[in-house]
Amino acid sequence: MGQRKASSDGDRKVGRRALLIGGTVAAAGSAVLARDELARLWWRTPGVEKPRKEGEVDYAGARWVAASEANWRRADRPDDYGIDMVVVHVTQGSFDSAVKAFQDPGHRAAAHYIVRQDGHVAQMIRELDVAYHAGNRDYNERSVGIEHEGFVDRPQDFTDEMYEASARLTARICARYDIPVDREHIIGHVEVPGTDHTDPGRHWDWEKYMRLVRRARTSPA
Question: Which residue numbers delimit the N-acetylmuramoyl-L-alanine amidase domain (predicted)?
Answer without folding.
Answer: 72-201
